[in-house]
Structures are given as C-alpha cells and as structure tokens.
Amino acid sequence: MRYSPLLTDLYQLTMLAGYLEEGISDTPAVFDLFFRHNPFHGGYAVFAGLDTALSYLEGLRFTEEELEYLRGLGLFRPAFIDFLRSFRFRGKVTAMPEGTVVFAKEPLLTVEAPLAQAQLVETALLNIINFQTLVATKGARIVHAAADGTVLEFGLRRAQGPDGGVSEARAAYVGGVRSTSNVLAGKLFGIPVKGTHAHSWIMAFPDELTAFRKYAEVFPDTCILLVDTYDTLKSGIPNALIVARELREKGYELVGVRIDSGDLAYLSREARRMFDEAGFPEVKIVASNELDEYVIESMRSEGGRVDIYGVGTRLATCAGEGGGALGGVYKLVRIGDRPRLKVTSDIAKATLPDRKRLLRAVAPDGSFIQDVICLDGEEVRPGDMVYDPANPLQHVVLPREARLVELRSTVMADGVRTMQSAPLDELADRTADQLERLPLGCLRFINPHRYKVSVSHRLNQLRLELMEEVRRGYES
C-alpha cells in the first residue's frame, strides 16, 4: 500500500521550503520518536507499526499530480516544487523490533537524515507508530485479561476509517489477538479470519430454529450460532441444542454459540451447564458486545464460562481511561555537530539530547529489571549509577548480576531496509514472551508497578549542561 507524501501537516512542507531557502535543508539531523506517558495508565506499551513505517519511507516520492496540487496552493516557489520532484528518503532508522515491550521516554525510533528528509516524515511516522503501538498495547491487555480464553478482533465497523480498520487488525495481532473478522486484513497480512453471523440472519427466516438449521446446512463444519436474538436461555440455547443433535446425527459437531447481549457472565455459565448436561461439552461459548480488559476480567471473576471473546469497538478505538491516543512526539535531538534540547519549566518534559542507545538490564533468570538510556558510544556496566530522567537527584545502582542487552539496531540505511519483514506470529510471540518477563505487577490494570527507566551518567550531565546553557542564554 502506498502512503502519499501529502499525508502530512502543511507546516512540514512550509518548514521544508524555509529550510531550502535558508540553505540548511541538507544539514544532518537526528530526531527521536517517543511518548511521555504509558497508555491506559498502564505499566507498559507494546511497540508496533515499524514495518508499515519502513514501507512508507521506502516508497516516499511525489507524483506529478501531487506536485500540481501543491503548486495550486499558491504557497510555494517553483524551485521548491522542483526540489520535491526528486525528493527521496535516504536516511538511517534505528529501532527495536516490533513486539518489544517499551516504556515512557524511551526512543522507540530514531531518524538520522538531512534535515528536510527527517522533517517531512514526522507526521506520517507519528500517525503510524502512535496508532499501532496503542492498539497493540490494548490488544495485549485484553489477551492478558482473557487468560486461557481466545480473543477475536471484531472491530472493523467501529474503526477510524478503512485504513484504521486494517492497521488495527495488524497491530492487534502483534499484541496477541491472532484472528480477525476483517477479510482485507486477512488477505494483506495472512491473519486467520473468523466470524459467525448477524441477528439479521435469524430475522430473515420465519423462526429462530429454521434460521439455525439453514445456517448449519450451509456451514456444517464451522457452525457457530448467535443465540440471543429473542431469548438466550428459553429459545436460543434450546434451539441450538436441537441443531447440535441434528448435526451429530449427520457426522458433524456444533462448534459454538455466540451471546451478544445481557449478563454475559450469568448467561455463559447457564449455557455451559445446558450444553454439558446435554452431552455437548466441546461446544464453545463465544461472548461479544462492548468487551474490553476490564469487562473480561469482571466476567471471569464472576465465574463466567466464556471460551472465546469477540472484541470490537473498545479495541478498535482504544477506548478506556488513558486511551484514545498514545501522544507520541518526534523531537530534534541533534543538528549538525550540536546536540539539541527542548527545555520547559518542567524537567520531566525536557527532551533527552543527542544520539542515544537503549539498554535493558536482564536478571540471570531472564526477567527484566529496568531500562537505561545512554549516549551513543557511552559504556554502561552493571554496578554503575543511573538517574531518574524526571528527577536527576534520584538515582539507583544497576545490579551487578544483571546483563545489559541492546534493544535497538539499524533497521534502515540509506533509505533501504537492512532486514526482511518478520512474520506476524514472530512479533506476537515476542510480545507474549516479553510480557512474561516483566516485574510482578506491571500487568496489573489498576495502579500497576512502575518499571524503572533511567538515564546514564553522561546523558544526565549533558542534559543538565544544555539546560543551564539555555537558561543563561535567555537570562542574559
């Protein structure tokens, strides 16, 4: 899929035109993409969207039609339009693999390129990474709540437009939701597609039992019946049992039933009892209707007997407190040979300057201890003192038994990928593995454990020096 270079904010183009006029468009620049707060007030996020972002960068070029549109705006001089005609991204990108568990203030992705190239891609990169990382995180939370249950992605009809629906299905898979109702996403990404039928199927026939029988005739091997159109326990389940017996007589088995309304914990318990007593313990109970991690956790705590959770609206829209948008930002951290720093009155919002590495301290048993952001070329060892980025007076010592693992690598050089795309199963497996290695409490939905992200001694000193330099500048 091609992403147009016009998928950007106008000010990116006006800045590019200004850079060209000032003769600084080719100045080397480094930008970091990061977020300041974990989404959903949670203990982590799941990095996603990298493959989509790299595809965007590789294919970045203006068509004549797009240039004609820009010319028609009356804002840009002919020399700038000519500049865009040959525009390509030829930069370097450093990032961690998708499915990596990440935290606030960490550089998810770093772009090094001539200033004009690095600037233009800001909006699109934020659009791609913010959304997919948010969805992958929501998906991981829902999968965690479902425990040994299966989660299906049903969110297309409520997603933010067609592309949002496709991107959401992909990102949810990275988070662990390994099937979708979205047929296009299935085709594009190889995601298994699943589904049942709607209430309209039931209402299109004279009665519920006839509708069930007709559906079973068409799909005898994969029959899942929607049982709440009229009355789940008095009509839907009894009629489904009739069809289940008829299928068995023909050599087939009813796969499951779906409940889409009412008290899902109670109804699923009763449905499980009725099917078990009738000799159909293998029939799956599917639940849907505005589900998210909190509802699923509540259903399970009340003894719900759901095998499969169909999650739509609240996954596709990332609904919930602290959701809706990730809030990732893209900040200049070096230009030419000088590190740069965005300073505010709140040190917690001050950026981390210059080229950086991201290290993870791992315990001997493989569990994660904390992360450390350090300067490129800086050596950090177990036993070193590291600092809280929001409060430099707070510091801890890295455990001496830990080993430090480099989280990021070069994923694009000179505008070309340095590695092939990984299968989605590999990304989802990475997510699941990393979540298991987090400290106890990080997966908690309410008041989760705060995973430490620290900065190294040299990075801490550089930031303080630059802040003081800026302060002296505006006070003089």
Keywords for this entry:
476 residues, alpha/beta, nicotinate phosphoribosyltransferase, TIM Barrel, 2 domains, 7-stranded antiparallel sheet, 5-stranded parallel sheet, 39% helix, 19% strand
CATH homologous superfamily heading of the largest domain: nicotinate phosphoribosyltransferase
Strand content: 15-25%
By oligomeric state, this entry counts as single chain
**What is the CA–CA distance across the termini?**
52 Å
**Structural class of the helices, strands and pairings?**
alpha/beta
**Total helical segments:** 16
Say what the CATH topology of the largest domain is.
nicotinate phosphoribosyltransferase
Task: Describe what this molecule looks like in 3D.
The chain is an alpha/beta fold and 476 residues long. It has two domains: 10-135 and 323-475, nicotinate phosphoribosyltransferase (Alpha-Beta Barrel); 195-301, Aldolase class I (TIM Barrel). It has 16 helices and 20 strands. The protein has helices spanning 10-22, 50-58, 64-72, 78-85, 115-120, 122-146, 161-175, 183-189, 199-203, 208-218, 232-249, 264-277, 293-301, 313-316, 424-436, 457-475, and strands spanning 28-34, 45-46, 92-95, 101-102, 109-114, 150-153, 224-226, 256-259, 284-287, 308-311, 329-335, 338-339, 356-362, 368-375, 385-388, 391-397, 403-406, 409-413, 416-417, 453-455. The strands form five sheets. It has a seven-stranded antiparallel β-sheet with strand order 12-11-1-5-3-18-19. The protein has a five-stranded parallel β-sheet with strand order 6-10-9-8-7. Strands 17-13-14-20 form a four-stranded mixed β-sheet. Helix 3 (64-72) packs antiparallel against helix 4 and helix 7 crosses helix 15. The mean pLDDT is 96.
